[in-house]
Amino acid sequence: MRIGELARRSGVSERSLRYYESQGLLLSERSPGGHREFGEWAVDRVVRIQALYAAGLHSKRIARLLPCMRDVDGGPNEFATARLVDELTEERDRIDRMIADLARSREVLDEAIAAASAGPAREAEPSSPRARA
Amino acid sequence: MRIGELARRSGVSERSLRYYESQGLLLSERSPGGHREFGEWAVDRVVRIQALYAAGLHSKRIARLLPCMRDVDGGPNEFATARLVDELTEERDRIDRMIADLARSREVLDEAIAAASAGPAREAEPSSPRARA
DNA sequence: CTTGAACCTGACACCGGTGTCAACTTCTAC
DNA sequence: GTAGAAGTTGACACCGGTGTCAGGTTCAAG
User: Which residues form the HTH merR-type domain (chains A, B) (predicted)?
Assistant: First the structure.
């Protein structure tokens, strides 16, 4: 498929897809005229790239990681170096911390929402434990 | 306390603290000479600000939210408008989605780590279910 | 008074994925 | 062959919290 379809199917802008390619995250055949041609595997790969971006990894690290991952219909490619495994483990720990932080942030927000919602009604329910404040 | 101590105690750079103030997230008294003077409550507030930043909220929204939150020793300040409550709820949902995404990313990474670790040893354990690929 | 640490303001730069525009080429369907 | 959709490369800009440097002022201790 060509870039337009891939963009549509993966939900990622053409701009980003070209960027991914420029970063070596996404390979493509080229038509005689120079148009990119992607296989079915590309959709899955783009989704994976997005997941990694969302996790806060940068292009370079993703570029090193991807060749070590099995694409849906591509066999295993390369083996990760011990160094890379270490880095990935570190990333995973970072994600874990991030999730924990987000959970805390969520609580902060939740508290705010609760306080905000209860606020205007506070005078009507003086028995609320929050009314002390 | 002054900005240096606050930075030390909250683990946030002085630069950021000044920025927070410029965005209206953090108030300070000023000494006759113009030096910022913070109360104990500031530490807690800065931590909260960080939590909100970590959650992906921008300064403006945090600025609107903070006055509605009870500081540790400050009483309740303002009541949130229904509009703000809506926005916050939306933010919370966004955080939930973000956490879910991160969990998925974590799995992607985990899979990669597993594959990478198992990779070099694969030839030694041909009975592995992954060996089919 | 003096000295050095701490603080002040203001400005510039960065990151890095993405949006967008321009100018041009290729593809496809008629 | 020709029009219009779709693709190409290249360049510029943005966001927005943070690092950092410069040049000057204030504070606190001797």
Answer: 1-68
